[in-house]
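Format notes (please read before filing issues)

Several people have asked whether sequences and structure tokens are stored in separate files. They are not. Every record keeps both together, in the order shown below: the sequence lines, then the token lines. Line labels are part of the format and must not be stripped during preprocessing.
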Amino acid sequence: MPMIEFLEGAIASPRFPTVAVPAAAVSQAWSRLRAPGQEIGIIEESLRLLAENKKSLHVGEAQVRFLLSMLAVARDASYPRILGTVWAWAALVISVWVRRSLLNSVSTASASVAATLDSVARTYCEILQDEAVGSCSCCQSILLLGAVCATRECREETRRRCQAAIVEELGKRKERIATSSSLPEALAGVGYAVMGSWEDYSSVPSIMTGSLIFLWTMPVDRESLEDGGGERKDFQPRPSLDSCAMLSKLYEFLGAWAREQRVLEALCEPLVSRDSGALPEVRNAKVAIAAGLLRGSRWQPSLLPLKKSLESMIVALASQLLQEICESGRLTREQLLRCIEEHRSLPISDTQRHQLRCIALSMVSGRKFEEAQPELLHCLVIVLLGDVLDISQIYSPQSLSIPKMVAALEALKTQAGGVLFREVGSLARAVCEHYRGVSSFYQQQIEALFWKYSSKLYERHRVFSAVFSKDQVLKDEMQKSKDLVKALEAVFLTIVLFFSSSVDMLHEREELAAYVLDSFSCVEFLRRFQVDEYTDTVKKCALLVSGSHRASSQLVELLPSYERVISWPGSSILENPDYSWCLDDVQTSRIQFHFRILPSCVQQLDDNSVESGVVPILFLYVCHPSKQAAEAAHQLFASFLSRRADSAREGSLAEQLGVFYINRAMEGYPDFTPLEGLVAGVVEIVRCLPAGSVTIRHCIDQLVSKTQLLIGLLGAGAASDEAVAAIRALLLHLLLIVDIQVLPHLMQKLSKLILASLPSPAAQEKALEEVFAVVSTCEDHIRKPALVAWLQSLWFLHSQASPRL
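Then the structure lines:
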């Protein structure tokens, strides 16, 4: 891939159209250029079309000579407004010939080609001396001169002349180059010039690197500074994040190219020297260049000291920046991280924020350092959670109005379109890499930060959703925005990625697995699709928690209390009088997640933990309007009974909960209590409680009473046949599994239900046929005789009560 396209891949979007221009348009552009006496405006337009179509453009040596002769005439004319633009477009067209025909060629040198290259270099070196024209075409001229340097056909004298002209331009027109949209061309030209320094590679790479480091050090207009502060009113970060990304890419390219030790040492020399200044823009450029070299170079054993020097320089700059931030904000490093935990704005200046971003961007996709440093880890975490994924402006109480929310969404749109947001996955992986290398003290610090960050996000989004539910206009505004969804999905994936990387180190700290699961529960409302790392991490953590009493108890403690579940989550100022806990989808997703994990932990929990921590929420959600949430609660209750069946005894917690469960379930049937969940809970009561248990009898009584009530409501249209048939089928199924001591009680209740409660003989006969179908499947030789005799007696009583024909 040509270097210019390689560098353009580091910025947000292509600067030229990606749709190819028709071949006829290209031919017509060449024809217009060849027309004698053509106006300068037509020449400029034709060259622009050719340059923008450079990816599919073919340029030969004859065309280059023609352009040089044509431009020589245009140079003599007086067109100060667009003459520089003409030379800039021409440089891009000529560079197509140099880069495609010569840089990718293995042919031997040609006298004709060398002469053409000399002519190109001489012409453009002279053009750069013209103040007006050179300022408009400096970036494109650097690209062309650098490409000339890198060709084998270029004479050494010409090469030195081109390199000297590039260095001069980087110093003379630094402001023009650094702020130009054509910066990728200039950087690519520098890269080519370095690659062309075969004979004098001890000095040219060093000089070029030093020039790039100081490219953004422009004079500051002191009158534009704010009173009493150090920030500009119109703050323009230098170098920009796009520039840092391209610098890093450029030196990654050069690091991979530099096979000679002396070349690599020359590239690194300006970075490790102590006289390169301490201005923010110098720091940013040095970090970007060093990170690129670390990423691209093949570090042989003899070069390891140089590699460590670069790593030490980056760490020192990061440490110095953190110290400055803490001193200016009068806070400690821990307090700075606490701002991230609580989703509060960071107390840092624009310059400091930009330096942090440059460090983070430079570390993206980088290789792991020989020794991981907490300073770099803190910088990466601050940028990742406190900047790139900072959505606190959306949750601010001030944003809960149309104008403020629109402004917050616009800011979020800008944030989501930035270069760092596009690299958020790589940035998260860089955090994971450095996290794994630091000491356990810093690991636990970052683990706690991610957990608290997740918890705070859950709390704030819960309030956010509850407030918006009462304001349809604000709700419509939010639904129009896709940027918030993108940001929240990025938050979810970042948290999953971090904890999936830490799960392998949890075997000696099972309680941490409980915090990981709680973090996942807090962001469960963000999960829109299945992620392998998410599933694997949940399984591993659930396995660890289920094998530890302490971890299981910790997970129960992290479950929201009953009071917090039913209460308004925010401040009284924002309180929504229509708030209902059962309509809180954010909270429901979290509770459901816990309900899916807790069954595996039941055997590790004591009765007190279950009774005080789990039961209140469990019985609350048994009648939740959401079928999935209610079923999860029923399944959790069934798991509790089945996994503690051995310890169930008369008067035990299991028996007490069985009474409360069936009462609560019957309150919500059939409107809220799902049949599948009810069946699971009732079956486990019958199977797991002691034989002859009073709770089992009470369960049967409640089921029969509910059936009788529903039968009575059928005539008024307040109940459905399906609900009656379902609960009656459940009672009949119990005939096969209830213990022998309770079986007579069940048969007695069913007799009264069938013969006394059903409204007609036809309904009774249908019910008896259902009983027959169930009894016929019984294979219990002790139970079946009693059931057969009971069924015969029912048929007899039914026949006696029915009118005779």
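For reference, the curators noted about this record: Residues 1-200 form a domain with the Leucine-rich Repeat Variant fold (CATH 1.25.10). The radius of gyration is 38 Å.
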